[in-house]
Amino acid sequence: MASAKKSNARRRPAPAAQEERPNAPSSTKVSGSAAALHVVPTSPLPDPEVPERAARRRFTAEYKLRVLREADTAAGAGEIGALLRREGLYSSHLTTWRRQREQGALAALTPKKRGRSAGPVSPLARRVAELEREKARLERRLKQAETIIEVQKNFRARRGPSHLLDEKLGAQLR
Questions:
Q1: Model-wide pTM > 0.85
Q2: Does residue 155 lie within any of the structural domains?
Q3: In a domain, 27, yes or no
Q4: Number of domains, the chain
Q5: Where are the alpha helices (DSSP H) in the chain?
Q6: How does DSSP assign 5-47, residue by residue?
Q7: Mind listing the pLDDT tens digit for each residue in 8-43?
Q8: 75 vs 63, 88, 99, CA distance in Å?
Q9: Strands 36-39 and 26-29
Q10: Do residues 28 and 37 lie in contact, with contact meaning Cβ atoms separated by under 8 Å?
Q11: Are 37 and 30 in contact (CB under 8 A)?
């Protein structure tokens, strides 16, 4: 049990004037003046903003070929894993790039533009799209007009015949 206690006999106490404080600012005298200069190091804070969406990585054909050559020459156990960790890649990248290389060498390794192809639009297709938009707009207006007419019919049906209403109003005014 005596071994569990640490002996403090060999530890020297720090001098009273120069106590070590880990995060305390250092003080130095400036050319004989009585005032002490406190220097506090400032470290730039990292930006707390997180981007909405991470930027998609794009690899050039030369980079893909260089990594594939290194992977093909890796002979020892774990060398491919070290290559992938060093380059920040996944094994699926190598699989995809090898398939692309077999299909068409450098042309298959160039990154393709994502999204719909912006093929040439014929004037007839443009006109058809314009007419379809106009038709949809007119159908919305027609549905709105039919709804208004239906509401008016229901309102008049509940109120009763309008000629009776006119007679009642005329009798009250006399």
A1: no
A2: yes
A3: no
A4: 2
A5: 61-73, 79-87, 91-109, 123-159, 162-173
A6: SPP-SSPPPPPSTT---TTPPEEEE-TT-SSEEEE----PPPP
A7: 445 555 555 444 445 544 545 555 555 566 666 677
A8: 20, 20, 21
A9: antiparallel
A10: yes
A11: yes
Distances (CA, A) of 56 to 39, 90, 101, 111: 43, 15, 22, 12
Residues 6+ apart with CB under 8 A from 83: 67, 70, 71, 74, 89
Segment 53-79, tens digit of pLDDT: 777 888 888 898 899 999 989 878 888
**Residue 97, class by beta-carbon neighbours within 10 Å (0-12 exposed, 13-18 middle, 19+ buried)?**
buried
For the record, the structure tokens of 125 come out as 């297709």
Question: Which residue range is the domain that position 149 belongs to?
Answer: 135-173
- The two tokens of residue 121 are 């639009």
Query: Is residue 83 situated within a structural domain?
Result: yes
Tokens 């050039």 -> residue: 60
